[in-house]
Specification:
Thiolase_C, ten-stranded mixed β-sheet, Thiolase_N, Thiolase, 10 strands, single chain, Thiolase family protein
């Protein structure tokens, strides 16, 4: 099979709920990153074979194949198709995997992967407003569990013995690292600055455990999960340009990273958010790379117990985990988050000469993606 490289990656700033991106239609916000991707790469959009676009709440403004309407909103040729992927929080990471698979197989040569979510306009849970997606047989199989991710996060905290203080320490560190990354410019290189927003909006400087201690539990009266140690409801979009080294040379493009391996797995849908643990083992085995050789890990901070349980089980170096902060501080625009994380990680690898980077996402329903990339020469 053919080698796959990522040659360009861009993202919008991540906006907070009702913040600087809240007035943008998701198709138009998607068009911003598609346009920037082509301009920065210096390519004619007509060379793109397909656009694979992640989006979770595919109703209202995000319905009817938002991937296709993103292409049209960008003014790209009508001949370029687009499709929309829903792998819950890992939707745009799965979009990258699908794009890589298409290029690797030789079916396509240049594919754009990415995603969008404007949660200010299409609220979390909007797709379930008119019905229950699980069905009676699923509920019967799992004893009527509500499939509430917050409750699952509580169960993870209990199983691994994480106190509220430990979770809040992790949350405060996420804000501290994100603020430092903003100040150093580490988050700027691949950012498309918008008229309405020029930087990630969710970072709360000066967040401390004492401040977080004042927040009420969100899911159970005596619980440890609250708004401050959970990912933020956010708006954003991101895009990645995927091709082969040979096609990159033909187009005058310089690879940023090589796509080494991608996997997806299922796990217990009641604990729900533990999938990154086996997914990490799977992707490392598939790539033939040791955990000790990876120098940066992006484990999505859906809730603080998720990366902490991952750390406990993998034994990875905590200093290499989410070094620029994560979704607790920077936000989690569901369908865009996989591409946002990959964009951040690629730049971090380029800035610091890091050979291997691993990204993994927990997902609703108990699935998880993991992707390993290698710095290009």
């Amino acid at each position: 099979m053919r080698e796959v490289v990522i040659v360009e990656a861009v993202r919008t700033p991540v906006g907070k709920r009702k913040g600087g991106l809240s007035t943008w239609h998701p198709a138009d916000l998607s068009a911003v990153v598609l346009t920037a991707l082509a301009e920065r790469a210096g390519i004619d959009p007509g060379v793109v074979d397909d656009v694979v676009w992640g989006c979770v709440s595919q109703v209202g403004d995000q319905s009817s194949n938002i991937g296709r309407y993103a292409v049209l909103a960008a003014g790209w040729p009508e001949s370029i198709p687009g499709t929309t992927v829903n792998r819950a929080c890992g939707s745009s990471q799965q979009a990258l995997d699908f794009a890589a698979q298409a290029v690797m197989s030789g079916q396509q040569d240049v594919v754009v992967a990415g995603g969008v979510e404007v949660m200010s306009r299409v609220p979390l849970g909007a797709a379930r407003a008119s019905g229950m997606p699980y069905g009676p047989k699923v509920l019967e199989r799992y004893d009527g569990f509500s499939f509430n991710q917050g409750i699952s996060a509580e169960k993870i905290a209990q199983k691994w013995g994480f106190s509220r203080t430990r979770l809040d320490e992790f949350a405060a560190l996420s804000h501290e690292r994100a603020a430092a990354a903003q100040d150093s410019g580490a988050l700027s290189a691949r950012l498309v600055r918008m008229d309405t927003l020029t930087a990630d909006e969710g970072v709360r400087r000066g967040t401390t455990v004492d401040i977080l201690a004042g927040l009420k539990p969100a899911f159970t009266a005596d619980g440890v999960i609250h708004a401050g140690n959970s990912s933020q409801i956010s708006d954003g979009a991101a895009a990645l340009l995927v091709t082969t080294p040979e096609k990159a040379r033909e187009l005058g493009l310089t690879p940023l990273v090589r796509y080494r391996a991608g996997v997806v797995t299922g796990a217990d849908p009641v604990l729900m958010l533990t999938g990154p643990i086996p997914a990490t083992e799977m992707v490392l085995r598939k790539a033939g790379v040791a955990l000790a050789d990876v120098e940066v890990f992006e484990v999505n901070e859906a809730f603080a117990p998720v990366p902490l349980a991952w750390l406990a089980e993998t034994g990875a170096d905590p200093d290499l985990l989410n070094p620029l902060g994560g979704a607790i501080a920077l936000g989690h625009p569901l369908g865009a988050s996989g591409a946002v994380l990959m964009t951040r990680m690629i730049q971090h690898m380029r800035d610091n000469g890091i050979r291997y980077g691993l990204q993994t996402m927990c997902e609703g329903g108990g699935t998880a993606n993991a992707t390993l990339v290698e710095l290009a020469d």
